[in-house]
Amino acid sequence: MKIKITILLLLIITIATAFIYEQPPHKLTYLKLIIPKGWPKPSSDIFASNPLTEEGFQLGRKLFYDGRLSKDGNFPCASCHQQFAAFTSYAHDFSHGFNNTLTTRNAPGLFNLAWMKEMHWDGGINHLEVQPLSPLTSDNEMAETIPDILKKLNEDTTYVRLFKAAFKDGIINSQHLLKALAQFTGSIQSYNSKYDKVKRGQDTFTISEKLGYQVFLANCNSCHKEPLFTDNSFRNNGLIIDERLQDKGRMAITGNPADLFKFKVPSLRNCTVTLPYMHDGRMYSISKVIEHYRTGIDTTKTTLDPLLKKRLTISKQEKADLYSFLLTLKDDELLHNPRYQEPGYVRKLSIDNH
Amino acid sequence: MFVSNQEVNKIYEIKLYPMRLISIFCLSFFLISQLFFIGASAQLNSQPNTIIKITFLHTINNQPLVLDSTAYTNCWNETFTLSRLSYYVSNICLQTTDKKVIKEKNSYHLINDEDSASRSFSFNIPPSQYNSLSFLIGVDSLKNVSGAQTGALDPLNGMFWTWNSGYIMFKMEGNSPQSSIVNNKIEYHIGGFSGVNNSLRNIQLNLGDNGVSLIKGSITEIIIRADLDKIWNAQHDLKITTTAVCTTMGALAAGIADNYSKAFEIIKIIQE
Questions:
Q1: Is B148 near chain A, with CB under 8 Å?
Q2: Is the pTM of this model over 0.95?
Q3: Using alpha carbons only, what angle is made at residue B116 by residues B113 and B122, rounded to the nearest 5 degrees?
Q4: Any alpha helices (H) in B81-172, and if so which ranges?
Q5: What confidence score (pLDDT) does residue B3 get?
Q6: Staple partner for B74: which of A4, A71, B29, B232, CB 3.0–4.6 Å?
Q7: Taking CB atoms and an 8 Å cutoff, what residues of chain A touch B15?
Q8: CA distances from A175 to A279, B159, B173, B192 (A)
């Protein structure tokens, strides 16, 4: 009798403990990507198989700023993608990579990536999650291997904890590494520039900005389409080919001769802080870019975009107004958003002791 | 913020860990006692699985492939050794004699010659009479555009192009004195999943006129030979002298895929 009661008691305790302590609860704070009013819906949901969470975002953010993702520790993602420059390499035609190397293309800005179907100037990357594989492993960028990165992360108790928080099974593998990075970069959004505020009726253009907007709509909007300020297409914009780089552009990806010298149309959002311009960063000012479309287009190439066969004809005044308008695309809420900053980074006020 | 989280972590490790041990102990006690009390009825509930096992064998010159040592000769009288052979087998389907198609779930396998365990895999299947087996050499287009994957599709397996997203469907590397490339290398990395660049090939294999009967609880092993001699001339001519390397998608890659798609044949079906 006593044995039976003991067994019964033990069973009850067992069941109770199994229910209470079987698994520590795994809580995720789900986030939603903001689709600003009047914007098109992204062509596909980049978070469809990678639910966006605060935990995943924070892990991705830490990884983005961590030099240990590169071979010698000197090249975090953020070394080429600086927040104050809308996540481009500020004032660098090419970015610096491992062992005194240079990249062969200008680092593109990282924002509104959820609306971007293909990444890189040639569109070679077909999903945001797999993009980091390219800079992480390229000899002239971060030059690291995936197994080495995973080893470094596994040896760091902070990462062990952060991966556990962000993913149910908590495993540190390439899939979770890439998904976390995508949660961070895919969440970087730009929709609060003066232009956006004017569109929402929260601000007004100056006369010059308004005139510049008219110039923009008449001459630029067909490729740099509002509200993303790119149509994400690939076009040959008539640059003279650099003989050393011999960059074939989109054709290197598709193998299609019709894609020769075509590059992705970049967004004009934040363009006043993303200098230099073009896929090889050859132009250091917006004035030079406008001048290219006025007088510099190489019309001899067969793949030249049909829209550029007629050169841009705008007056000096219109050029100045256009520049005023482009300044309204600068989004300070992107450039200084603390959520996108390096974790633990505190902006210190400089105090004058005199 | 991270400092505070570390503190949380400490608390977590100190407090919850023994709790978990207790729970595991209690749970195992519970399970053992379950076995004692209702052990007999458990046996009645067990369902015998019907298992199909698929094994790949690689041959060159009608001999089993030996990496890194044996020198082989192809139909063009070119000599070569191989150092690596790996390829994807995916979307395995079996068809019953009454035209029902059974698909393996999450069917992605990376066959790597130097890892004998990778050359063989098995899965459960409903008992029936089957007369054909089909699979893709390569990874279907959907998985090529669906972001970061894991397991057989993990990019760290070295079968993923990082500069032009997509899986390398088939990889064969080695050396040949006829190669004009540095270190006399031969390197065929075949990829591309759409349009004219599509290197995916569907392999259809017949399981005999009357099919194979898979009875409940049985294990059936299908041994497939990949005859690598086919890569040099099954449909298009491939010569080391002129083409020792193919590492981009395109017509050449698609042609090599045509050739190796002719290499697969069933050589044996073993039933227990």
A1: yes
A2: no
A3: 110
A4: 141-144
A5: 43
A6: B232
A7: none
A8: 29, 15, 27, 22
Q: What is the DSSP string of A124-185?
A: -B-SGGGTTHHHHH-TTTT---HHHHHHHHHT-HHHHHHHHHHSSS----HHHHHHHHHHHH
Whether residues B147 and A178 touch (CB distance < 8 A) is answered with yes
**ipTM of the shown complex:** 0.86
Min distance A107 CA to chain B CA atoms (Å)? 15
d(CA A152, nearest CA chain B) in Å = 15
Q: Can you tell me the mean pLDDT for A231-251?
A: 95
Query: Cα torsion at A144, A145, A147, A150 (round to 10°)?
Result: 30
Alpha carbons B73 and B84: distance in angstroms, whole number: 17
CB atoms inside a 10 Å sphere around CB A187: 22
Average pLDDT of the segment spanning A191-214: 98
Look at A10 and B29 and tell me if their CB atoms are within 8 Å. yes
Distance of alpha carbon B140 from alpha carbon B118, whole angstroms: 19
CA B222 distance to own-chain centroid: 14
Beta strands B201-206 and B185-191: pairing type? Answer: unpaired
Distance between CA B139 and CA B171 in Å, rounded? 13
- Which residue ranges of chain B lie beneath pLDDT 50? 1-16, 37, 39-45
Q: Taking 60 as the threshold, does the pLDDT of residue A354 lie above it?
A: no
Cα-based torsion angle of the residue sequence B136, B142, B147, B151 in order, rounded to the nearest 10 degrees: -30
Mutate to test the interface with B, among A8, A9, A11, A17 (most CBs of B within 10 A): A17
- Residue A180: what residue type? A
- Residue A119, pLDDT score: 97
**Residues A289-318, mean pLDDT to the nearest whole number:** 94
